[in-house]
Amino acid sequence: MHHLLVQAAPAAAPAVSAGPALAIAAGAIAVLLLLIMAAKMQPLIALLLVSLGTALALQVPVGEVMDTLLDGLGETLAEVSLLVALGAMLGRMLEVSGGAGVLADALVRRFGERRAPFALGVAGMLFGFPIFLDAGVIIFLPIVFSVARRLGGSVLRYALPVAGGFAVMHVFLPPHPGPVAAAGLLGADIGLLVLLGLVVAVPTWLIAGYGFGKWAGERIQLPVPELAPEAEQAAEDDERPKPSAFTVIAMLLLPLVLILLNTGLSTLSEAGVLSEDAGWVQAAKLVGESPIALVISVLAACALLGLRRGMRPAEIERQLTDCLGPIAVVILVTGAGGMFGAVLETGGVGQALAGVLRGLGIPLIVAAFLIALVMRVAQGSATVALTTAAGFLAPAVHATPGLSPAQICLLVLAVAAGATALSHVNDSGFWLIGRLLGMDVPTTLRTWTVLETLVGVVGFAITCLLWVVL
After folding, report:
1. I need a surface site. Which of 48, 236, 354, 423 has the fewest CB within 10 A?
2. Whole domain around residue 445: which residue ranges?
C-alpha cells in the first residue's frame, strides 16, 4: 500500500494548542448534550450558550466572537432556510390535495406492504442523484408519512431507508459538490468516480440505509409527526377529485429535473463543450439552482394540485403560510448547529485533530478516511470535511508515484466515507433530520448518527476491498 509521504503546508497556528483545543471541544459537546438531554434546555438557547463559551475558551478574539457566531449561523441558514421553507410548501400542497396519499397507495399496490421501505429507499437513491440530502428528504417526507400512516409501525422503518438513500448519493456520487471538489483536488476522473461511487454506494445503502433502517424501525417506535394535522384532515375530508399518481410524480420530478439541468450544464461548461458566458447557459443554470427550482415547483403545484382542483387563491395562500410555522424551529436550530461548527473550525479544533494524524506513516487510503473523519467530527459539515480533507491530502497524492486512476478515485471515496461518519450535535443535518422526524436528541443519536456512521464505515470497508482488488 502507498503511504502518506508528504505533509500539507501548515495553516495558521490556532490560539490554543492541540491538546487543550481537543479537550475544550470534547467538553463543549458534553456540556451541550447535558443541557439538552438532562436539563431539557431549548436546543437553540443551548447551542448559542455553548457556542459562545467555546469561542471564548478557544481564545477566539473577543471582537471576532459575534462575527464567528453570525457567520456560521448565516451560512447555514443561507443553505437550508429557503430549501426547507419551499420544500414544506411543496409538501403541504401534496398533503392538502391528497397527492401524498395517492402516491403512497400506488407504491403500496405496486411493491406490497412488506417491500414498501425498500421501494421508498430506492426512490430516495434515484432522486438523490441530482438533489441534495436536505431538500430531497423534505420533498419526500409527505410520501413517507402517508405510507407510514397506512401501513403502521414506526415512521423510522420508512424514513431511514429514504434518508440513507439520499445520504449515500450525496457523499459518494458526483454531481454533488463534495465529491466533485475532492475529485478536482486529487485529480480523479469524474466518469470513473461515478462508476466506482455506484459500486460503493449501492451495497452501502443496502446494509446501512435499508438494513439498519428496518432494524431500527422494529426496535424504536416513533409515531408519525403531526406537523400539520389540520392539513391531513383537510385532505381526507376534501371531496374534490384527487390528482393522479402521474401528476404527483411529475411534481416531485420537476425540481429534480431542473436541478439536474443545472449540474449537467455546469459539467459541460467545465469540459469546454459549452461557453460559460453564453446567456442561455447562465439563464438555464439559474433556473436549476435549488431555491429557484423549488419555487417553480411550488408554483406548478399551486396550479395543478390547487387551482385546477377548484381551490381558491386565498385558500392556497393560507395553506402555504400556515405550513411555515411548524418548520421555523427546524430552520433556527439547524442554523444554530452550523454556528457551533463554525466556532470549532475557527478555534482550530479541526487543525488540531488533523495534526494528530499527520506524519504517522499510515497507509494513504487509511489516512484519507481518518483525516476526513476528524474534520467531520470537528466542524460538522460533510461537504466541508470532504473538501478540506481532500485539500490536505492533495500534496501527498500528487507526490505518490504509481497511483492508478482507479486508486485516485478510491481515495476520493475513502475521504467521502470519513466525511460521513459520526454526525452529531455540530452537524446541521443532525438537527434537520431529528426535528423533521420529531425525534429528541437521544433518539437522533441512536438513529441518524448510527446510520451515518454505518454509511461511513461500510463505505470505507468496500473502498478498501476495491483498493486491494484493483
Report:
1. 236
2. 18-469
